[in-house]
């Protein structure tokens, strides 16, 4: 990774709240920045803010307006169209909140992990993303996305620059200036000496699709002979899951690291932060894209072509036993 410390003494990191992946990779980035002695402040909302408070109990997490994303249908265009007006209001609100934090905290660099409104005209503003070219299948949405990114001074891509990079065409720097490939940002660190078991199911992502996947996966896992653990991706106080399988509602790094290290195989959404962790730990996985998320569909197919995953493109047609056999046969 290049030297990321040169421009700032006090950096504000703003994490998107679409799941926990943005918070996870921002924490990994912050570890590297703090290693150089830099001061970090944080801002987020929703589940991402909750994760940051668990991981950083002695740190104030400043509140940003939530996006409250939902994926109610399998159509990316329809999901975006239904929520676009609210997201636009959120972007304006988070821009105002960012300006207040810059003034209050004396910020001299902003790193926005995929929050479009977290920039400042008088402060060096970095956009952290693996998606310079999102797959929208809707030209106006792509145009708006590129226009929003034009407000940032620099782009950091958590990947390597080579053609075999994890993010593939999503992070093609063509058409952008000041793109820096800073290397992957895995959040989970391997833990030695853990007893092995067969399968870890990581359930995550926006509702109602997360709950729908749980309804599909749990009965199938109950019928398998393999030893299994489920991470539900819910608040720790969530209602119990009626199953004989081992499960955890919400995990922090200290809890998830031994679970992921010990698993032979993983079932997961192909969120980019999850993929960075899986590759860092050399894990093979069954990847099930969130319906309507074209980015995850692309990443799952790419991982399958690279030979370390089995992609199940329609979660309603998931056959865990069949996918697991394919994964075992892949070498």
Question: Can you describe what's shown?
Answer:
With 331 residues, the chain is of the alpha/beta class. The chain folds into two domains: 10-181, 3-Layer(aba) Sandwich (Rossmann fold), CATH 3.40.50; 197-329, Glycogen Phosphorylase B (Rossmann fold, 3-Layer(aba) Sandwich), CATH 3.40.50.2000. It is built from nine helices and 13 strands. The chain has helices at residues 21-35, 46-55, 76-105, 139-149, 209-222, 253-262, 272-280, 294-305, 320-329; strands at residues 10-15, 39-44, 61-63, 109-113, 124-128, 154-157, 179-181, 197-202, 228-231, 246-248, 263-268, 284-287, 309-311. Helix 1 (21-35) packs across helix 2 (46-55). The chain is globular. 42% of the residues are buried. The mean pLDDT is 90.
Short description:
With 331 residues, this protein is an alpha/beta fold. It is 37% helix and 18% strand.
- The portion of residues forming beta strands comes to 15-25%
Biggest pleated sheet: 7 strands, parallel
Write the CATH architecture name of the largest domain.
Answer: 3-Layer(aba) Sandwich
**CATH class type of the largest domain:** Alpha Beta
- Give the N-terminus to C-terminus distance in angstroms: 31 Å
Global mean pLDDT = 90
Q: What name goes with the CATH superfamily of the largest domain? A: Glycogen Phosphorylase B
Protein name: UDP-N-acetylglucosamine:LPS N-acetylglucosamine transferase
Organism: Neolewinella xylanilytica
Keywords: Transferase
Pfam families: Glyco_tran_28_C (PF04101)
